[in-house]
Amino acid sequence: MNQTLKNLRLLGFTEAISLLILVFIAMPLKYLAGEPLAVKITGNIHGVLFTVYVIALAMTARQTRWSRRQLLLAFLIASIPFGPFLFDKMLFGDPSLRS
Question: How far is 54 from 36, CA to CA, in rounded Å?
Fold first, then answer.
């Protein structure tokens, strides 16, 4: 696996974990413990990670010469909550995406 795909994989996992933290830690802190700052901080971090992940998808697609269909699929999956976990499974199960 080349370094570009390794970086995309790590970034995807990081982005998905940030959503898990937002949903299962920060939001309960906001609504059950009255700590809205937890969502503000975690939400901002997740937003930045998501944006960087989408940019990384585009850069990876260009470098590895994915088709437009493959790139569109990657973007669609990225927009689904926890999509990077699903995309990782697809990416490393489909050799044509790794070219």
Answer: 27
Other Cβ atoms closer than 10 A to 66: 21
Question: Cα dist. 94→43, 66, 68, 76 in Å?
Answer: 32, 12, 16, 17
Distance of CA 56 to the CA centre of its chain: 10
29 in Cβ contact with 46 (< 8 Å): no
Helix (H, G, I), strand (E, B) or coil at 67: coil
Domain limits for position 76: 3-98
Res. 98: pLDDT tops 80: no
The candidate with the shortest Cα–Cα distance to 26, out of 45, 41, 8, is 41
Amino acid at 15: E
Q: What digits encode the pLDDT tens for the residues 64-91?
A: 899 999 899 989 998 898 888 888 888 7
Domain count, the chain: 1
DSSP 27: H
